[in-house]
Amino acid sequence: MRNILLILVLLAQPVYAVQPDEMLDDPALEARAREVSKDLRCLVCRNESIDDSNAELARDMRLLVRERIVEGDSNEEVKEFLVSRYGEYVLLKPRFGGSNWILWGAGPGMLLFAGIGGMLYLRSRSRAKAPGEASLSDDEAKRLEEIMNR
Amino acid sequence: MIAELGHFALILAFVTACLQTVVPLVGADRRWPGWMAFAEPAANVQFFLTVVAFAALTYAFVTSDFSLQLVVSNSHTDKPLLYKVTGVWGNHEGSMLLWVLIVTLFGAMAQWFGGNLPPTLRARILAVQGSIGAAFFAFILFTSNPFLRMDVAPFDGRDLNPLLQDPGLAFHPPFLYLGYVGLSMAFSFAIAALIEGRVDAAWGRWVRPWTLAAWMFLTIGIGLGSWWAYYELGWGGFWFWDPVENASFMPWLIAVALLHSSVVVEKRESLKSWTVLLAIIAFGFSLLGAFITRSGIITSVHAFATDPERGVFLLLIMGVFVGGGLTLFAARASVMEAKGVFGLVSRESALVANNVLLVVATFVVFIGTIWPLISEMLFDRKLSVGEPFFNQAFTPFMVILGLILPIGSMLPWKRARIGRTVRALWPALALALAVLALVWAIQSGRSALGPVGMMLGTWLVVGAVIDVLSRAGRGGNGRNRLARLARLPRSDWGKAVAHSGLGVTMAGVAGLLAWEMEDIRVVQTDESFDVGRYEITLRNVEQVQGPNYVSTMALVDVARGGNLITTLRPEKRVYPVAGQPTTEAAIDNGFLRDIYVVIGDPQQAGGWAMRVYIKPLANWIWGGSILMALGGFLSLSDRRYRVAAGSRKSSRLQGVPAE
């Protein structure tokens, strides 16, 4: 359910993502352009990369990426160039560093936290002494029986 | 007139829901049977009234009653009948009505099948379910009334968004909502148990079928949505890590964790408070999903037309239910002490590991989804979090989960020796490593994604097969073992089928992402070109008139080694009323690959832009989802979990141990 409404405002004739006339003749450079495009956000779209987007602005950005690649920029330099022009917002993969360490550290940090919590729980369970550990207490067994028989 | 009837039914349903919240709660507290029993007719009446309201709105759509504002903005007389009906929930107001319809359906079902629950527990469950209904009825009536009239009825409507005019809309939202809202039952059970102050093995057994059903529907709903995106959007993307997709994925992940932890409650009387907490969080994520989709706070491709007033109302609902649930949990969690004792290496520990991984993975998705918001508010950094982040940060958890799954699912309860389980699994291990080496050798030099995906898929599927076979025992001849296999409880089969489904999906995702081929070019009519092993020929392009659209349809021949495989008809449609174009990709589905053809724009120098994709293993993604849902269904049909079994087959159930 891509929201095309917004794009329609910008476009008379819709185009669909990468067009044949945009593509570079050198397949190696074109492949690099595609790779870089997948990490860049189309600024007027909702969470779409410029590689997938139909917007006119995305097309301009794709052409810009190819221009820089032809001029000999590395993939990182191309992204750097687009960030300097459009801001950090353009990167679909946030950079490491600054406040973003919270984002990137969330997974490993939580895994460590939850892993320790889980281990502590398991240890407490393996050391606990429970009478009649294999079954329910008499009381509960009776209750369950009663319920199942109702 | 009929619209007013619907509106009135909705108001009555709201009143009933309010009464259903209060009366049984008081009754259960004071032990007044009459007050407790009030919940049952109330649940039925509430469901019936909502059906009336829903039917009234459907009637307005089918008869194109353009005096209703909602019908004007989302329908058109030329629209095919199927889309007139599905258009009912192809918009914010109507989809909310579908949502409460399902809330009340689950409430009524709890009453139909809940005969074996203790009366106080049942009354409290229905009261909590009633309060959820009341909140959403209020939301609809005060902020999103579908029955608003126009001052002047226009001659015709503005048509439904063409992207939604697809059979996908008929099935995707209803299944998704059955899943979202189904989790409200787990929530109601959890809250009722907290009020009751008692969580035991019986509770674990009662809550499981509801979670299982919700999870199964959610799996189908997400799978359908992904498949819909795949064929409708024109480049065959199947998952975009879009906020709204994440909003459906987070409850799914938590529901998986909940399913597994409730097994521990049921069999071993441990992890009780954790399971109750998961039940609250799972429904919390469902509500978060509703909030994200409808408030516009996070921009997403799926968002309905958004409105701050609605956002605030939904945030309030979420705050009350999640906040209230967690407060109650904090107050009461201490009464649920664990009973089971188990060693560090045991099925219980494996299920704890499963829960840790799933919950952490959910947390990663959650923080990735809301990070742009937090970052802008707290750090004044406007940034995006998209697909590349999630692929990198989320995937490792799924890989680890896949690696430990077959071992964990075969470990015995209480105390186990890991060496024994691994020895039982050696054929799966050997086969998986062989697949890894083979795929690695064949594709030389590309990413590790493909080989690792294939290895995980093999490991999970063969591991599930070995798990089932091991249940049949060692002794006896082939026929004995076969008979024992046939007698295995359905839930054992369900487990194996669902686990192998996960393996198939993982292999499909990895295969598609790693080995997709794409070809974009300008093609003249009757020109041929090669994509991979296939020869593609553009035969012809013609204009076709549809019921409410004009289509540019191409005729494309696909051949391999000179033999014609199929003729595909990709289309580009323009819907004049809505003024929107859509691409209709043509797909040749195959077991090992899809051929996906899209026709683009005519070029100034003649010819047409065309894209051809070869998508390996694409159908495995949805095939695996179907297997997962089927596994859920098999477990659900297990005699031991049939909710009403206790009342009907009491004599036969006597032999079942309380485990």
Describe the structure.
Chain A: GO terms for molecular function: metal ion binding. Chain A: InterPro entries: C-type_cytochrome_biogenesis, CcmH/CycL/Ccl2/NrfF_N, CcmH/CycL/NrfF/Ccl2_sf. Chain A: Belongs to the CcmH/CycL/Ccl2/NrfF family. Chain A: It comes from Aquicoccus porphyridii. By secondary structure, chain A is an all-alpha fold. Chain A has helices spanning 5-10, 27-38, 56-70, 75-86, 100-127, 138-149. The model of chain A is unreliable at 1-15 (pLDDT under 50). Chain B has 22 helices and ten strands. Chain B has helices at 2-30, 33-37, 39-62, 69-74, 81-86, 92-113, 119-143, 167-196, 201-232, 243-268, 272-295, 308-332, 347-379, 387-410, 418-424, 426-443, 449-471, 478-487, 490-515, 618-636, 645-648, 650-653, and strands at residues 517-523, 528-531, 534-545, 550-560, 563-568, 571-575, 580-584, 586-588, 593-602, 608-616. In chain B, a hairpin with a 5-residue loop joins strand 9 and strand 10. At the A-B interface, helix 5 and helix 6 of A face helix 13, helix 14, strand 1, strand 7 and strand 9 of B.
Task: Give the helix/strand layout.
The complex is a heterodimer of chains A (150) and B (659).
Chain A: H1 5-10, H2 27-38, H3 56-70, H4 75-86, H5 100-127, H6 138-149
Helix pairs in contact in A: 2-3, 2-4, 3-4
Chain B: H1 2-30, H2 33-37, H3 39-62, H4 69-74, H5 81-86, H6 92-113, H7 119-143, H8 167-196, H9 201-232, H10 243-268, H11 272-295, H12 308-332, H13 347-379, H14 387-410, H15 418-424, H16 426-443, H17 449-471, H18 478-487, H19 490-515, E1 517-523, E2 528-531, E3 534-545, E4 550-560, E5 563-568, E6 571-575, E7 580-584, E8 586-588, E9 593-602, E10 608-616, H20 618-636, H21 645-648, H22 650-653
Antiparallel strand pairs in B: 1-10, 2-3, 3-4, 4-5, 4-6, 6-7, 8-9, 9-10
Helix pairs in contact in B: 1-3, 1-7, 3-6, 6-7, 6-8, 7-8, 7-12, 8-9, 8-10, 8-11, 9-10, 9-20, 10-11, 10-13, 11-12, 13-14, 14-17, 16-17, 17-19, 19-20
